[in-house]
Specification:
Layout: E1 6-7, E2 18-19, E3 28-35, E4 41-48, E5 56-64, E6 67-68, E7 72-73, E8 83-90, E9 96-102, E10 114-121, E11 126-127, E12 131-132, E13 142-150, E14 153-160, E15 172-179, E16 184-185, E17 189-190, E18 200-207, E19 213-219, E20 231-238, E21 243-244, E22 248-249
Antiparallel strand pairs: 1-2, 3-4, 4-5, 5-6, 5-7, 8-9, 9-10, 10-11, 10-12, 13-14, 14-15, 15-16, 15-17, 18-19, 19-20, 20-21, 20-22
C-alpha cells in the first residue's frame, strides 16, 4: 500500500499503466516528465531514501524505443537530506536540465531548503555537478522550482520566503537564468515583490518563439483591488525591450474564490 509512480501513453486509446518506481514500502511522489529530440522519455520523482538512510532522493528513469531502463539517483546520496520537488526538461540539443529543492547543506548552503540544478550533456553522455541556485538569499526556504530552456538560456523560477532585496519574510517568486554566451548565472531577480506582503506560490514559466517569457503564480495580494482571496497572476519579460511588465491578474472574475496551481504552456 505504498505510493508508486506510473506512466501511461495515449495513441488511439490509453494503454495499460506501467509502474516506474520499484521500491517497496516507500513513498514515491511528485513526478515530472520530458521527451528529448530522439523521443526518449525521462521521468523524475522524489522517493523515500529507505533504511539505513533517511530523507528523500531524486530518482530518474528513461525509456528508449519503448524499453524502460534502470532507476538512477540524481541527488547526493552521501548526505542524508530531503531532495524534493523535482522538475526536468530537455533542450533542442538533447541535453537534460534538472532542478529540485534540497536541505542537505550542499556547497555550504546551510540546512534550509535551497534550489539545486544539474545538467546532462547529451554529447558526453555525462551528468554535471550539482549547482546551487538560491543560496545568495541567505536562510530563506526555497521551494517548487519551475525550469525552462530556450536557445540554451536556462530560466529557473521558484518561491522563497527570504528577505531578499527588502521583500519581507512572505513568500515571493524569484528568478535566475544561465547566460550561455557569458557562461554564467545572472543575479537573482525578484518577480513578485510589487505586490507587497502577500504570499506568492506555485509558479510556472513558459516562452513564445520571440523569446518573451511568461511567469504565472498564485497570490493572495490585493492586486488591483482584487481582494485577499488567492488569485492567478502573471508577468511577462519582453525580450526586445529587456523589461518586465507589471503584475497582471488573470482570475479576478472569480470574485472571492481561491484560484490555485497555474500551469503555463505555449503553442
Amino acid at each position: 500500500n505504498d505510493i508508486d509512480i506510473y506512466y501511461n501513453q495515449q495513441d488511439q486509446s490509453w494503454g495499460v499503466p506501467t509502474q516506474l518506481s520499484d521500491a517497496k514500502k516507500t513513498e514515491s511522489s511528485a513526478p515530472s516528465l520530458t521527451v528529448d529530440k530522439q523521443n526518449d522519455i525521462y521521468v523524475v520523482w522524489m522517493e523515500d531514501a529507505g533504511a539505513p538512510r533517511t530523507g528523500m532522493d531524486i530518482k530518474i528513469i528513461n525509456c528508449t524505443d519503448g524499453v524502460w531502463g534502470g532507476i538512477d539517483i540524481k541527488s547526493d546520496i552521501a548526505i542524508d537530506s530531503n531532495s524534493i520537488e523535482p522538475q526536468i526538461v530537455a533542450d533542442d540539443a538533447g541535453n537534460l536540465h534538472l532542478v529540485w529543492a534540497d536541505d542537505g547543506g550542499h556547497s555550504g548552503s546551510g540546512n534550509d531548503f535551497d534550489i539545486f540544478y544539474k545538467k546532462y550533456n547529451a554529447s558526453t553522455k555525462t551528468w554535471g555537478a550539482m549547482t546551487l541556485i538560491s543560496d545568495n538569499i541567505n536562510n530563506g526556504s526555497s521551494h517548487k522550482p519551475s525550469i525552462l530552456v530556450v536557445n540554451q538560456f536556462v530560466h529557473i523560477v521558484w518561491e522563497d520566503n527570504c528577505t531578499f532585496a527588502g521583500s519581507g519574510n512572505d513568500y515571493d517568486i524569484l528568478y535566475k537564468y544561465w547566460d550561455p554566451a557569458l557562461t554564467t548565472w545572472n543575479d537573482i531577480l525578484i518577480i513578485s515583490d510589487d505586490i507587497n506582503d502577500s504570499e506568492s506560490h506555485n509558479t510556472s514559466i513558459t516562452a513564445v518563439p520571440t523569446c518573451d517569457l511568461f511567469v504565472s503564480w498564485e497570490d493572495n495580494g490585493n492586486i488591483n483591488n482584487s481582494g485577499t482571496d488567492v488569485d492567478i497572476v502573471y508577468k511577462c519579460w519582453d525580450y526586445a525591450q529587456d523589461t518586465w511588465s507589471e503584475t497582471k491578474i488573470i482570475s479576478n472574475d472569480t470574485n472571492n474564490g481561491n484560484s490555485l496551481h497555474p500551469t503555463l504552456i505555449s503553442g
